[in-house]
Amino acid sequence: MNKLIAIVNVVAWSGFWAFGYIALTAQDLTDRQLIIASLLAFAGFIMGIVAYLRLVRAAEASGYAKKTNQLDAAARNRAQSEGGM
After folding, report:
1. Total structural domains within the chain
2. Which residues contact 66 (CB under 8 A, 6 or more apart)?
3. How many CB atoms lie within 10 A of CB 13?
């Protein structure tokens, strides 16, 4: 499953850069073509971020990447109550 998510990540970011470049630099596009290129670039951007975050979560869960240093809810609440704010 991680390989599929990695492939989706690469394809999504490629679509973002390709269609974003087209939307920004093409001279002879109609308004409709410009809107479609912009929407495809935005879709690639969103899918790329989602796929990247899923890959990060899978890497942390498998032990490949070290876990983030986030506090659990009880420790966070205790620290906030001691902070006086």
Report:
1. 1
2. 60
3. 17
Residue type, 34: L
pLDDT score of 85 more than 60? no
What does the alpha-carbon distance between residue 61 and residue 1 come to, in Å, rounded to a whole number?
Answer: 14
* CA-closest candidate to residue 10, choices 34, 33, 18: 18
Percent of the chain with pLDDT over 70: 98
User: Domain range holding 19?
Assistant: 2-83
Q: Which two tokens stand for residue 37?
A: 């290129």
Contact 60, 67 (CB under 8 A): yes
Torsion angle, alpha carbons of 29, 17, 52, 7, to 10: 90
Token pair, residue 54, equals 């899923």
